[in-house]
Design a protein that fits this description.
The chain is α+β, with helices and mostly antiparallel strands. The chain is built from 6 helices and 11 strands. Helix 3 crosses helix 4. The structure holds adenosine-5'-diphosphate.
């Protein structure tokens, strides 16, 4: 190991130049480097393995994402295609309804027509949710009497829920209110709010639908004296697929309010909720008068 002994020069001490001092040290240089090199190689190898794994993960995620998007597109296409036969059924039903003389059969046909219309609405809601992050919803705005629209929907929902004792009261500060909006989508918004008011309440619920004119904005509120919503859930219910666990099972997918918010905002409006658990809820959406 003499190779690794490091020594300094000889330094004379004293004045006669007969005595010298020298420092010698044994530095096992190669074993130190060897050890370091080993650690270095190990770290590099580990980094390469981790990097490889990360790259592999990214590629897999990317592939899955692509596959998922393709599958989603085809599902959305299929959902969309379901709409046209349903619309044909609705048209046919309304035609048959006019032809049959018997009142009982007429009512049966009308019921079927309503169910088919409900399906179309649900398909529409599903499509909006699917489109949400990618494309803007395509609104077909036309001058619509909002008071009439709200009255119609309230009556429709009330009829469809005749099995559940309830009361829906409608009040409006204006008799007639023409706004530029997409009647199909806004109809869905009101329907969702009124249906929820009945869905998340006990029998005998009182629902009030109110239309007000507040500084250049129109406010529509749907109030119920049902189960109410806890403060922590109030912020989350407008998110897609968020549902509150109830004391009994209630059917639903948690997309209704997400669609409501989306449609209201697409009309440059806002939506808010006031609710007290056990007392009831009030959902209010506003729409600017000038769209
Ligand atoms: P879904 O009704 O399919 O669950 P929504 O998006 O319409 O989906 O509603 C989300 C959640 O908000 C519901 O699961 C329910 O817990 C709550 N909610 C909505 N409307 C009301 C209401 N009027 N009263 C009490 N809870 C409500």
């Amino acid at each position: 190991n003499a190779l690794f002994i490091k020594k300094t020069q000889l330094y004379p001490i004293g004045t006669k130049g007969l005595q010298f001092i020298q420092v010698k040290a044994n530095v096992p240089f190669s074993s130190f480097i060897q050890e370091m090199l080993q650690i270095l190689i190990e770290s590099i190898l580990l980094t390469i393995i981790i990097l490889g794994y990360v790259i592999f993960l990214v590629i897999t995620i990317h592939k899955k994402d692509k596959l998922f998007k393709r599958r989603e597109a085809s599902v959305n296409g299929t959902i969309h295609d379901l709409k046209s036969p349903l619309n044909s059924i609705i048209t046919l039903m309304s035609f048959i309804k006019k032809k049959v003389p018997d009142i009982h059969t007429q009512q049966l046909v009308e019921n079927t027509e309503r169910q088919a219309q409900k399906l179309v609405n649900e398909i529409e809601a599903l499509l909006i949710t699917a489109r949400k992050d990618r494309q803007k919803v395509y609104l077909q705005k036309e001058e619509t009497d909002l008071v009439l629209l709200v009255t119609e929907v309230a009556q429709e929902v009330s009829m469809q829920h005749s099995h559940q004792p309830h009361q829906i009261k409608m009040e409006s500060e204006l008799n007639e209110l023409n706004l530029m909006l997409d009647p199909l989508y806004v109809r869905n918004v009101i329907r969702n709010l009124v249906e929820n008011a009945l869905k998340y309440s006990d029998d005998g619920v009182n629902v009030q639908v109110l239309i007000r004119n507040i500084d250049g904005n129109i406010e529509v509120s749907v109030t119920d004296d049902g189960w109410g919503i806890a403060p922590k859930d109030q912020k989350l219910i407008f998110r897609q697929f968020y549902r509150v666990r109830q004391h009994i099972q209630v059917k639903g997918y948690g997309i209704g309010l997400a669609v409501v918010k989306y449609v209201v905002e697409a009309h440059h409006g806002k939506i808010r909720v006031n609710s007290v658990l056990g007392k009831g809820s009030c959902f209010t959406f506003s729409l600017p008068k000038a769209q």
